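Subject: Sanity check before I submit

Could someone independently write out the structure tokens for this chain? I want to compare against mine line by line before I put it in a report. The sequence has 433 residues.
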Amino acid sequence: MKINDIALLSFFLMLAFFSYFLGSYIGFYISFSFFLIFFTFKTDKINARFISIFFFMYFSIPFLNISTYRGEVDIQVMGLYALTQFLILLMMTLFEKGRSKPVALYGFVSTGSTELMFWCQMIIIYMMVLYVYSSIGVILIRQDLRFTISPAIEYIIKSGLVLPLIWIFSYNFRPSSIEAIKKLVLPILPSILIGSRGTFIMIVISVMVAMYMFRVFGPSDFVKRYYFIFRKSKRYLIVASVLGVLALYTGFYIRRDGEELITANELLFEYEFISSSLWVKAILPLYIGLRESVGITNRIIMDDIYNPADYPMFFMEMITFLPGHQEAPGIVLARDIYMASGSDEKYSLTPGILGGLYIDYGMLSVLYIVIIASIIIYIFNKGISDLKYRMIYALSIVQFFHLYHRGFLKLEYFVPYFVVFAYMFTLKKVRLT
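---
Independent answer below. Compare away.
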């Protein structure tokens, strides 16, 4: 990064700093948003760029005070989000390795045992999908039915999502049309059939991250193998973006056609959006989803809400798959905090990682988030010279995005790692360069 770029970034930071202490919400919002977007374009660190794009989206959209949804966000809460994001980006700038290609690069090849494990897993997953559809109903049409799926069965069905990454990183995988359908499409289709659009989008992002790292760090054989993607990268990026937007928007509006949820137009009216123009409707699905987390976090911090449970709420979700009645932290948050205060909350609430940690650890939550991000940096640096770590990085970065937004640690985040580590016993390590 050039001296002029550092000077401009420092200017935006100083502007944000003074705006915060002067109590100017708009000034702080604009100056830190400019810092994030300028950092995204000027940083030469790949991982930092991925993270800063996500941070920009998570800062610029939900902190718009354009409605009464989840109340008005305080500048103190926006400041904590900005502090966390700045510390993470600073650490990445200082400790993340650059774009230089590795001298030695290690990868792996799949074996007969890998194939056998893959097809056994596919049989189990599709049997679970058939069981769900026969016992619950066609979830693809009735999205509300997905909330009645047993967590254990849902984990089994979603366990196949990570398999495309394993094949893409395998040195002896050849992406012909038939192989692509068998190894890349079959594993992700069951998650779509149970209405899990978010996790599907996450794995698509993981694949895009993997392809970008192939292009930057090699190996050259992988660049040649996926040349058809790199050659038309802009076209594929546009197609992937369109599919992602369609999945997000159709899911948002379809779910609001039922009896339980109000329609989008009613939403705009009820929460007094400043406008019903096209730009508001364009960001509405993202705004509602992100504002939900930010608004709940704002309530936790400003009202100094404490955890009513006997153990940290951040880890409470980890035991929901156990036999017996195990309440999820989002339900506890809705019932014991919001409803106790006179609200009519009926659903599980997600405060985002800052709120999920703050309710137990206070200001230390900022430090814990930075520590989690430091693990991502370590995996990224190792992945430059080892494709196994690079595969884990492509998975970990989207898991970080998911955790950052959802706020509570779930067993669901660990299942992909269990699957990857199990397959590693069947893979053979090879030196590529």
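---
OP: Matches mine. For the report I'm noting this point. The first strand starts at residue 106 and ends at 109.
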